[in-house]
Amino acid sequence: MPRGLIMTTGTTLLGVVLFAWSLIAFSTFPLSITQALPLIGWGESSTMTQIIAQIRVPRALCAVLIGGMMGLCGALMQGITRNRLASPALMGVTGGASLGLALVSSGVIALPIAPPLAAATGGAVAWALVMTLGASWSPDAARVRLILAGMTMAALCAGLTRLVVLLAEERALGVLNWLAGSLANTGYADVRLLAVTALAAAVLAAFVAARLNIVALGDEAARALGISLVPLRLAIFAGGCLMVGVTVTVTGPIAFIGLIAPNVARLMVGADYRLVTPLSALLGANLLLASDIAARWVAFPSETPAGAITALIGAPFFLFLARRPL
Fold first, then answer.
1. How distant, in Å, are the alpha carbons of 36, 126, 152, 170, 246 from that of 159?
2. Is the peptide bond before 112 cis (omega within 30 degrees of 0)?
3. pLDDT (0 to 100) of residue 72
4. CB-based contacts of 127, cutoff 8 Å, min separation 6
5. Taking the CB of the first residue and of the last residue of the chain, which one, N or C, has fewer CB atoms within 10 A?
6. Distance CA 119, CA 41 (A)
7. Is pLDDT of 229 > 60?
8. Residue 2 — φ and ψ, nearest 5°?
9. What's the half-sphere exposure (Cβ side, CA atoms, 13 Å) at 156?
10. What is the pTM for the complete model shown?
11. DSSP letter at 43?
């Protein structure tokens, strides 16, 4: 059996276990997996079954979709920049999306714009600035310059977001809570929005995966083999901003999944993006499911935001990668 299939199957099975555990883990109500079985047609429904269906199922589905899109977004960003440190958080896209949404949600900028569009626009502006400052459009640019530009942009956007909260204190309480990055208040409306976005992201990934394998050879080689780099970059740019914008709208900023998942995927299946992209999505989904479970456990019966758990995991992982040659 091919190694990629073995790794993908194992990751999928782990995801099924984590999803089932997420439905019943660390609840103030006594929940068990048998109470969830009526959701798939086994056994009789009860009050606890309805609690699982209305609260835990959409939360777990959101974790799968958000984690999957963040992992996929990180893989696409790393592929198009040929930089394994590239990710939505370190490239400033998550920070830009958070700032865009905070500006509109708090009323500092009074525009009749939907929250996902505001977040996507903020992420797009931040990403464009990072790519420009990091000279990423040039094939001769140093890769570390791009990451430094991204980290600077992320810090700037974080500071400006806090300033927005201070300037609009009365209307920004919800923004402050949202900035923690929690799955606690997600519902089926969020699942529908995320599912449509995830479907579009999957189509994009299937379309560009083989081309990213050629881009890895370098810009000149890619052009010689017939790859149009500008449309490819624009497609990934638009898709990445959409994914980040929608996920930030639903849960707030959740960092480092886009950094961890693609790098682990490459260790598991190699550098073929036809395998790396789907496995990155699966690993991202598993990572956020596990982080959400851990977030409930840390201060049970209170909850810690899942974004804090991913940061605790991602910060040392980034330091480990940063010590290795780019």
1. 43, 14, 11, 19, 22
2. no
3. 97
4. 91, 92, 93, 96, 237, 240, 241
5. N
6. 39
7. yes
8. -60, 145
9. 18
10. 0.92
11. S
